[in-house]
Amino acid sequence: MQTQLSFTNLAAIETELLAVLATDTQTAKGPDAKPQPVLLTSDEKVRAAAAAVLASGEYKAGSNETILLHAPAGLAAKRLLIVGLGKKAKATVHAVRNAAGTAVRYSKPRAIRELVFTLPEATTDLGLTLPPGASARAAAEGAFVGDFDPDTYRSERKDVSVHSFTLAARAGSEQAAIQTAFNEGSIIGESQNFARSLVNEPGNKLTPTVLGERAAQMASETGLKAEVFSTDKLHELKMGAFWSVSQGSEEPPALIVMKYEPEGVTDGPVLGLVGKGITFDTGGISIKPADNMEKMKYDMAGGAAMIGAMRAIALLKPKVRVIGIVCAAENMPDGKAQKPGDVQTAMSGKTIEIINTDAEGRLVLADGITYARSLGVTQLIDAATLTGACVVALGMINAGAFSNDDETIERFQTALTTSGEKFWRLPLGDEYYDQIRSDIGDIKNTGGRWGGAITAAEFLHAFAEDTPWIHLDIAGLAWIEDNKPFIAKGPSGVAVRSILEWVRSYAN
């Protein structure tokens, strides 16, 4: 999708579709309260073209609510699409991101290949806070996210993408800032979609080896340093936990290492991004039920998030060093697979009693975290589709976040105000760690049913030790079950934006 900025008068823009935003300014409550939709543009001709439908009560400007006007009077555009941001209190930059995605997804099935999206103008009398730069970035992100569809392997796949997305902004003193923000948003949206494209691949197409190849190709294109190792390196590093997961598969594992070293930066923090890359998860000997097992191709979404974040980092060039590590493997149940009751020795030297072979993500991450620490990282963040227990706790609304360091997690929570993603911090504690103490070894890979997301995090905490560390359990948000107005069902690319902003918070 080609993207561009325009500072031309809206009424004069010739396009297949001009999209403009609206919000409901009604503050009264009760059964007699009627919506009061208002367009977020100062263009009088656009306002005049939409005046009748806004006055009719037919359109309420609800969140992502759309209404289309053909041949709008006084405009050069063939169509005028109004997209709602919802009630005024919810008309945020994040709503703009979703509205841009909604406009793109509205256009796709209607064979509208050219779209002009209007940057909202938040007048002071409405009391809205929609900074032009932040809104421009969000609009670009939302447009790319909205354009992605998961139908990669349909034999008669039709091109229904939007070929051209133009952001129309009012001319003025902030044009340079809007351009910069829009360019950033395009990079971030493309990087999120890159992660989604990886997650979307079936397990027979995206093996650990192929995931390594895709990451290395991306690194070559963006200027990252990358190395991809396999079985021999795991044995050399004594990564017994990582190897134990892969030993039951015909497909060899891949240890993917990506390094971003900005010019002129030789000191300061070194950030470590560690992702779970289980390209298919049967559960191993503790095999999963057949229902919905096909979705277990998405069990590498944490690794994909790290690869997508590294792509954005390489292109946006923050002044901080970053090492990205993805531990990729298949978890399969053949005669060589590990068994419940086995004891494995991790890279750190800790011994792990295997209670359930389906608790494999924490095993690969344990060695990934230890390896990152051996490379000198000073702060760590990991991401994984780790536990169903986190989904039970938080549903599919928030992902889980855990940390051993308040300052580190505060940076991440601040990053969420920009990324718009939803994470909720859950606790850690010695009482939870007691649930994973082993009688035969140092630690068990599961701690029972209760507090399962927390005991999994405590397992990883044992390997992060005192390095400032964040664990993201994205199991509930990495796969979208139903189509939404602004995003297709399937892989979400969650955490790419938040990890990027966390990294940027450390830049000089």
Textual characterization of the structure:
- The chain has an eight-stranded mixed sheet with strand order 8-9-11-10-14-18-15-16, with helices on both faces. Strands 1, 2, 3, 4, 5, 6 and 7 form a seven-stranded mixed sheet that branches. The chain has a three-stranded mixed sheet with strand order 12-13-17.
- The chain folds into two domains: 2-189, Leucine Aminopeptidase, subunit E, domain 1, CATH 3.40.220; 203-504, Aminopeptidase.
- It has helices at residues 44-55, 93-107, 132-147, 175-200, 208-222, 231-236, 240-246, 301-316, 361-374, 388-394, 406-419, 430-434, 452-464, 496-504, and strands spanning 2-6, 17-24, 37-39, 66-70, 79-87, 114-118, 164-168, 225-229, 254-260, 270-281, 321-331, 343-345, 351-353, 379-384, 399-403, 423-425, 443-444, 469-473, 479-480, 490-491.
- The mean pLDDT is 96.
- The longest helix has 26 residues, at 175-200.
- 34% of the residues lie in helices and 21% in strands.
- By secondary structure, it is of the alpha/beta class.
- It contains 14 helices and 20 strands.
- The chain is elongated, with a radius of gyration of 24 Å.
- Helix 3 runs parallel beside helix 4, helix 5 (208-222) runs parallel beside helix 8 and helix 7 runs antiparallel to helix 9 (361-374).
